[in-house]
Design a protein that fits this description.
It comes from Pedobacter xixiisoli. Keywords: Signal. This is Outer membrane protein beta-barrel domain-containing protein. The chain has 180 residues and is mainly beta. The protein has a single domain, classed as Porin. 9% of the residues lie in helices and 67% in strands. It is built from 1 helix and 10 strands; from the N terminus they run H-E-E-E-E-E-E-E-E-E-E. The strands form 2 sheets. An 8-stranded antiparallel barrel has the order 1-2-3-6-7-8-9-10. Strands 4-5 form a two-stranded antiparallel ribbon. A hairpin with a 7-residue loop joins strand 9 and strand 10. The longest helix has 16 residues. The chain is elongated, with a radius of gyration of 17 Å.
């Protein structure tokens, strides 16, 4: 599994290296709380994670993003059997629009590399919105974000016959963004 983490981090670094000097770059780190929705809520009650995101401005109100992270969902008991916790490393590219200076809407898509006994890859898509709060430094900010995320073509648990077409959740993050 280490090669997947390495590939994720390599992808983010390569994305950042292609920026021009005139473009604004932001790097952010955010812990997350994830609340499963739909069929996923019958499998898990809560998830935790963290993400590292790079943002490269391409115009005054538009940016592209590269995001890599880790998610852990604590599973429930099904028919007296505890399912294995769900762990994944999602890697996403996205597009961000700023209707105002510190508010954004965003869409991302990519892949989630699942870890554990049932390793596989799922397609990920994720719309979201968020806002920035100024800190003492003019370039650094706090970020609050809310997103819906879905991982498609998944099934969970080696002992379970439970299958879902998508595992979805609402993600809440409060992070720190470094402006460069």
């Amino acid at each position: 599994m280490n090669y997947k983490l390495f590939a994720s981090l390599f992808f983010i670094v390569v994305s950042i290296s292609f920026t021009a000097q005139s473009q604004q770059v932001r790097i952010g780190f955010a812990p997350e709380i994830n609340l499963p929705t739909g069929n996923a809520s019958s499998i898990s009650g809560i998830g935790f994670g963290g993400a590292l995101k790079a943002e490269i401005a391409i115009a005054e109100k538009y940016a592209i993003t590269a995001n890599g992270g880790y998610n852990l969902f604590l599973t429930k008991r099904k028919l007296g059997t505890k399912l294995a916790n769900i762990e994944a490393i999602p890697v996403k590219l996205g597009f961000k629009h700023y209707p105002s200076q510190d508010f954004y809407i965003e869409g991302q898509a990519g892949a989630a590399f699942h870890m554990g006994a049932s390793s596989r890859t799922s397609f990920v898509w994720s719309p979201g919105l968020g806002t920035y709060f100024k800190t003492g430094s003019s370039n650094n900010k706090l970020e609050f974000g809310l997103r819906y995320e879905a991982w498609t073509n998944t099934s969970y648990g080696a002992t379970s016959t439970l299958k879902t077409t998508s595992f979805s959740f609402i993600g809440l993050k409060l992070g720190y963004v470094f402006g460069m």
